[in-house]
Design goal:
Layout: H1 2-12, H2 16-40, H3 61-83, H4 85-110, H5 115-150, H6 152-166, H7 171-176, H8 180-203, H9 205-224, H10 227-236, H11 242-281, H12 286-296, H13 302-318, H14 320-345, H15 354-368, H16 376-395, H17 399-410
Helix pairs in contact: 1-2, 2-3, 4-5, 4-9, 4-11, 5-9, 6-8, 6-13, 11-12, 11-14, 11-16, 12-13, 13-14, 15-16
């Protein structure tokens, strides 16, 4: 009973001392069971008899104890990560940004600009861009967001009218739709929640500015002299895995550079295109939808789907014509991006399955909040590279045969 209670406490992450208690209990049980088994299976020792290990023998005491320690270590690491979530998020974003900006610093170095001066110039440009966005883009975006929140009941009434006209022969469907007054109440509650969040954000402005200044200083230190950090990373890798560790970091840097380039170029083009075209056909707030389209580029494949949902809902509330025009805009813009921009900008660097991206999006958002979404693609790429370098490549699997076997399973063949 005590063992079960301590195990549950460890799983919930409420008591670290319970982990030690679990380890002691497991250790005592292993010692007793292993000692009993050894006493029951003793046999006379013969001099110079080779000690061949039976591959089909049960798990040894030392092997079981290693597993216990590994699980305990993973639990401890998880508890530490949960306790240091803000710090880990800050350092992860800074290191990601350093990977993205390092090629620019190297390019400036090749043009005879000292590295430290290059970093300072880059930081000044970054601060200038951030300040410009805050001053000129945030106020109109906030106004359009407020307008969308205020018009949500009328938007829902328009959507409800369209659905009722289509489902005239299905009264149960019409009755299941929320009423406009109910939707207004929900929107009011959501607006109050957003207001509370904005109030807390305003009250925590000093802390946000301090975090931003700390992040800039940390980024300067990382970019100005990254060699000791990279050397320490390589030194931590065992000698037999040094080559894999080197290739892992090199591939991650290439993929993150390609991903950031794709977000910057494709995001600006896609965001402007969707914003301008929606403004031309009269679907508002076009500016906010353009910003959504830009942010959707942080999530390849699934970003376009997530961006399309609010656009089509608002367009549907304005009528069938607006809906089909908005759908045509979305299809046109994202087809151009998929067939022209993505091959030219990203190339073949990023090959991530949508399921992997969706999993890491939910995982990073759960662990780190909204800002964690920006780490979804880097985390997915890192896991994929590590598995490929340390597990798949040494085994040299026959991918053609594996693909044929997978196709047979999918098609229901034996």
């Amino acid at each position: 009973m005590f063992f079960l209670f301590a195990s549950v406490r460890v799983i919930r992450g409420q008591n670290l001392l319970a982990l030690i208690f679990v380890s002691i209990c497991v250790h005592s049980w292993l010692v007793e069971s292993w000692g009993t088994r050894r006493l029951g299976s003793q046999r006379p020792l013969v001099m110079n008899e080779p000690d061949h290990e039976n591959q089909h023998a049960p798990l040894s005491y030392h092997g079981a104890w290693r597993i216990v320690w590994l699980v305990s270590l993973l639990v401890i690491v998880w508890l530490i990560l949960r306790a240091l979530q803000p710090v880990i998020l800050l350092f992860a974003l800074v290191f990601l940004l350093a990977m993205v900006l390092n090629p620019i610093v190297v390019w400036l170095q090749k043009h005879h600009v000292p590295r430290f001066v290059s970093v300072i110039l880059l930081m000044l440009a970054l601060v200038a861009v951030t300040t410009t966005i805050i001053v000129f883009a945030i106020p109109p975006l906030a106004r359009q967001t407020q307008e969308l929140v205020r018009s949500a009941p009328s938007v829902w009434q328009g959507i409800r009218t369209r659905i009722e006209s289509v489902t005239q022969n299905y009264p149960a469907v019409r009755e299941a739709l929320p009423r406009t007054d109910e939707m207004a109440g929900k929107v009011g509650a959501a607006a109050g929640t957003v207001g509370n969040i904005l109030l807390r954000s305003t009250l925590g402005l000093v802390g946000g500015v301090a975090s931003f200044v700390f992040a800039i200083l940390l980024l300067v230190f990382v970019l100005a002299n990254p060699r000791p950090l990279v050397a320490a990373y390589l030194a931590l890798a065992p000698d037999r895995y040094r080559a894999q560790a080197h290739r892992t970091l090199a591939r991650l840097m290439r993929q993150m550079t390609a991903w950031a380039r794709g977000v910057a170029i494709n995001g600006v083009i896609t965001g402007l295109s969707i914003g301008v075209l929606l403004w031309l056909i009269g679907v508002q707030p076009a500016l906010m939808f353009g910003v959504f389209a830009f942010l959707g580029e942080f999530l390849p494949n699934i970003g376009a789907f997530l961006v399309s949902i609010p656009i089509l809902l608002v367009a549907l509330s304005l009528g069938a014509t607006k809906f089909w025009l908005a759908l045509g805009v979305i299809v046109l813009v994202y087809q151009v991006e998929l067939n022209v921009l993505v091959p030219g900008v990203l190339g073949k660097e990023m090959r991530l399955h949508p399921v992997n991206i969706l999993f890491f999006t939910l995982a990073t958002a759960t662990m780190f909040g909204l800002l964690g979404v920006f780490l979804a693609v880097p985390a997915a790429a890192l896991v994929q590279i590590v598995i490929d370098e340390f597990y798949l490549q040494p085994r040299r699997p026959d991918y053609a045969a594996i693909d044929r076997e997978a196709a047979a399973l999918v098609e229901g063949k034996k």
